[in-house]
Amino acid sequence: xxxxxxxxxxxxxxxxxxxxxFPLDHFGECKAFKEKFMKCLRDNNxxxxxxxxxxxxxxxxxxxxxxxxxxxxEKLGFKDLMDEKSEAKKNL
Amino acid sequence: xxxxxxxxxxxxxxxxxxxxxxxxxxxxxxxxxxETMVPVKDxxxxxxFNADVHASLHWNFRPQQTEIYVVPGETAxxxxxxxxxxxxxxxxxxxxxxxxxxxxQYFNKIQCFCFEEQRLNPQEEVDMPVFFFIDPExxxxxxMAKVDVITLSYTFxxxxxxxxxxxxxxx
Lengths: 92, 171
What we know:
The complex is a heterodimer of chains A (92) and B (171).
Chain A: H1 31-43, H2 52-64, H3 79-90
Helix pairs in contact in A: 1-2
Chain B: H1 25-36, E1 45-53, E2 60-63, E3 67-70, E4 76-83, E5 90-99, E6 107-111, E7 118-120, E8 125-134, E9 149-158
Parallel strand pairs in B: 1-9
Antiparallel strand pairs in B: 1-3, 2-4, 4-8, 5-7, 5-9, 6-8
């Protein structure tokens, strides 16, 4: 990679992530949830839409173990899964 | 988390606080966007994953999936894996690239493992997640109409004292 500033030429500008960096899961505390998610992907032709519950559970695992800053699931894009859950509860 | 073992704190660390917000005005805005964005369910995009290491970094680094199918407006999770097969702790730091170039502006990483030093102990292996979404506006951009594949590439470098990540804007 060139260290010269190429003014005027289009070059990709990486942006830092919104919420910063995930701490490393050195002890594999959430590995089981990762495996569950990966299995879901393999079983569903790698369609993210079909594995969102599993991805939500992985992130919840991280938050519970201080491996991710606490954030409401709605703000992580899981609002529809939360709505589904409360609908299901109402119908019980 | 501020305690740096290096005398010179690379500029890029200031951008990537583990607390996430770091005073950046973008962070709060993004959370609101994520909460209200509507997935564009009929616009399926294949995201493929590359992994590279710089020659001086002796890590095994690879994606845990070659591809994932997403839609704009829906948050998605993907994993990389890194192993330090040496007998010494090694600190790496990564940057990323998105291809095609014009799609990069729509690729939003909520959280990942880049731009911050990651230390792997001897023989240690870790999962490295990337949590992201493609902006729903991608689906409205005529220049993106023929873009069905977006490739995300991460490259790890060894983090050394005074080392500057060879990325424009971060030197």
